[in-house]
Amino acid sequence: MKRFSNRYMLLYSLGIAAVVALLLSVVAMGLKDKQNANVRNEKMQTLLATIGVECERDAAPQLYGQYFKEEITIESSGKKLPLFLFEKDGKKGYVIPAKGKGLWGGIYANIALGSDFNTIVGITFSHDSETPGLGAEITTDAFCKQFVGKKILDNEGKVVSVSVVKHADPASLHQVDAISGGTMTSNGVNDMLAACLESYSEYIERVAAQGNENK
Predict the structure, then answer these.
(1) Which regions of 26-117 does DSSP assign to beta strands (E)?
(2) For residue 210, what pLDDT is reported?
(3) If DSSP codes are grouped into helix, strand and coil, which group holds residue 112?
(4) Mind listing the pLDDT tens digit for each residue in 125-134?
(5) What is the pLDDT of residue 28?
(6) Which of 54, 50, 149 shows the shortest CA–CA distance to 98?
(7) Among 79, 67, 73, 93, which residue's Cα sits nearest to residue 152?
């Protein structure tokens, strides 16, 4: 039997390790591209769901191009804020993304506003790790539908957001019911919406006022 020197065995092992590392790197790069594409498609899918257009993830890019006409960036207090402009059934609107903190981790929202930049026409929520059956209920249709028709501006055209509270007044245009048993998550949603809309407030109030002047 042929015997190999220790040096040979070391070099052979290093060569095999290098080849394996290269192959793993190639596979990882390929997967990364696919993962990035999936993330983009999921983002489009969520934005479409916010305006009431449901679709599979792979179909999202084509539908997104049909409904979302422009993505712009707003400068506010040194921050760059994204805003998505859409058109559905002949009506224009805006989607504002938001992020905050729930009980156990991050919570997120997409808020769709009508052409008046005031009336909520759709909203979706997601989260990293809220409790199933409690805080995680923010993703349900029952919770989200409460927001439809609510207003983010007061009678003077100032941003006031929509509050998530216990025993909300059904007649209020600025309140929805909190999640039963999910107080901390509900508070997180409340704070997230208020902070997000405050960041956009100068732009929202200006555009909303211009719209009213043009009526």
Answers:
(1) 68-76, 79-88, 91-101, 106-113
(2) 87
(3) strand
(4) 999 999 999 9
(5) 64
(6) 50
(7) 93
pLDDT of 32-54, one tens digit each?
A: 777 788 899 999 999 999 999 99
Classified as helix, coil or strand, 104 is coil
- Asked whether 110 and 123 are in contact (CB, 8 A), the reply is yes
Q: Which of 174, 177, 186, 181 is nearest to 100 (CA)?
A: 186
Amino acid at 37: A
What does the chain come to in residues? Answer: 215
| Cα 179 from Cα 165, distance rounded (Å) | 9
Decide if 53 contacts 63 (C-beta within 8 A): yes
In whole angstroms, give the CA distance from residue 105 to residue 110: 17
Give the rounded percent of residues in the chain with a pLDDT score beyond 90: 76
Is it the case that residue 1 has pLDDT exceeding 60?
no
Return d(Cα 5, Cα 85) in angstroms, integer: 69
Tokens of 183: 């107080």
The pLDDT score that the predictor gives to residue 11 is: 73
